[in-house]
Amino acid sequence: MNFEYHYIYLLFTFFLGIYFSAILLNKDWVLFPGDGKYNFDYFIKIFGRTIVRIFIGTLTLIGIGITFSLFYIQEKKININNLKLNNMNLEDYFEKIRQDPNLAYPILLGIAIFVFIGIIFDWDWIFDPRGNSKLRYHLELWGRKNVRIYSGITFLIIIICLSYIVVFNKK
Q1: Cα end-to-end distance, the chain, whole Å
Q2: Range of the domain at 106
Q3: How many domains does the chain have?
Q4: pLDDT, block means (10 residues), the chain with 171 residues
Q5: How many angstroms separate the CA atoms of 51 and 167, rounded?
Q6: 6 and 39: one domain?
Q7: Which residue from 16, 24, 141, 150 has the highest number of Cβ atoms inside 10 Å of its Cβ?
Q8: pLDDT (tens digit per residue) in 21-54
Q9: Where in this chain does the entry annotate a coiled-coil region (predicted)?
Q10: Are 152 and 92 in contact (CB under 8 A)?
């Protein structure tokens, strides 16, 4: 099995996307507040918090563009003409998934990434305890923060395993 190193660029793009969405949502951990030794406090004092956020957001967008461009350049298997030819014959995708179960893994990976992002940003519908007695029991026992941490770790392991299956389980 060969490790296709250009998928690391895609992973960097994913994490930079999470960081950029945290900048847009005005999360405090983005600027690493602290004692001013290894963070942006010095620049915040000089330029202001908003200007520093805009600058860091711009750098993050540039990083997203560069890493995704590197991934796309390295991924020479995907050709626009082949995509056009493949999409001309639209078939039933459920039939394809039934014939080749490996096609379901990218869909599961997308769902797992979506839920993982929901866990990070504490979306209410992820941990809605109404009507779920087991979730309500765990939330009362461990607290919302600990349940989020352990769920995040679990979904991160699921994402890593599904990524491995998607990348290395090609025919």
Answers
A1: 11
A2: 91-171
A3: 2
A4: 66 84 80 62 75 84 82 65 58 63 80 90 77 78 88 92 81 55
A5: 40
A6: yes
A7: 16
A8: 888 888 777 776 666 555 667 777 777 777 878 8
A9: 73-100
A10: no
